[in-house]
Design a protein that fits this description.
By secondary structure, the chain is an all-alpha fold. Helix content is 74%, strand content 0%. It holds the Pfam family CbtA. This is Cobalt transporter subunit CbtA.
Length: 249
């Protein structure tokens, strides 16, 4: 990456974001939307007999808007990932930029998706108290910031041990254990969401939605890291054609 400027990294990050957004949108359309339809059916059954309120936008528009939003979020996150990669590349383990980029994306998935999903799992439309949205959003965002700090601490622990002459396996193990311990502490000390799940929403529906939502985020981060890594990987020099070599000789 030595010859790639920050602008070059950002351009590659933007392309990685587009690819990640497309991947996330496809997973959302194929996997998440059917679960949402089941949740909406529960919600409609709950309000059956009440005066129907006309929806501001139709389902098709909502689906299209959700896919566009996923694309926009992926591009924004990929640009952040590219900037962070450019700043901390020398601190990341790995022999290639592909390995470093995919590791950084994995840490992003753990910090921005996995840890928050374990503490505050996503709920389908028929679940959740609208009056607590503000408080839940604050808890969610603060947990992401704390998880990102833990991820960075794990990287630093590994780097310090390597600088002190410790073996690579020992340094990596210490970094991983630091991350696991830190994430566990966050899970224990962060406030719970509170509230009970509605009795008319099947537990299987809630579970399916949470797994599907996490799969969408996993697809986004995996595609983002792999694409950025590939775009940062220098192309192999072209093989010399036999006829050209003979002419040169």
């Amino acid at each position: 990456m030595g010859a790639v400027t920050l602008g070059g990294v950002l351009r590659r990050g933007a392309l990685a974001g587009v690819a990640a957004g497309v991947a996330a949108s496809l997973v959302a359309f194929v996997v998440v939307e059917p679960v949402i339809e089941r949740a909406l059916a529960v919600e409609e059954a709950r309000t059956a007999g009440e005066p129907a309120e006309e929806a501001l936008v139709g389902r098709a528009t909502q689906i299209a808007g959700g896919m566009v939003a996923a694309l926009a979020v992926a591009v924004c996150l990929a640009l952040v990932l590219a900037v962070v990669f450019a700043r901390v590349r020398h601190r990341l383990p790995g022999r290639t930029d592909f390995g470093r980029a995919t590791l950084l994306a994995f840490l992003g998935f753990v910090s921005f998706a996995l840890v928050p999903a374990l503490k505050y799992p996503a709920n389908p439309p028929a679940v959740g108290d609208p009056d607590t949205v503000g408080a839940r959003t604050a808890q969610y965002l603060s947990l992401i910031a704390a998880a990102a700090a833990i991820s960075w601490l794990a990287v630093l622990v590994r780097q310090v041990l390597v600088a002190r002459g410790q073996s690579a396996p020992l340094a990596v193990t210490a970094g991983v254990l630091t991350g696991i311990a830190g994430y566990t502490v966050l899970m224990l000390i962060w406030p719970a969401t509170g509230g009970e799940l509605p009795a008319d929403v099947p537990p299987q529906l809630i579970w399916d939605f949470r797994v599907a939502s996490l799969a969408e985020l996993a697809a986004m981060w995996a595609t983002m890291g792999a694409t950025l890594g590939l775009l940062l990987t220098p192309r192999s020099p072209r093989a010399v054609r036999p006829d050209v070599a003979a002419t040169a000789a």
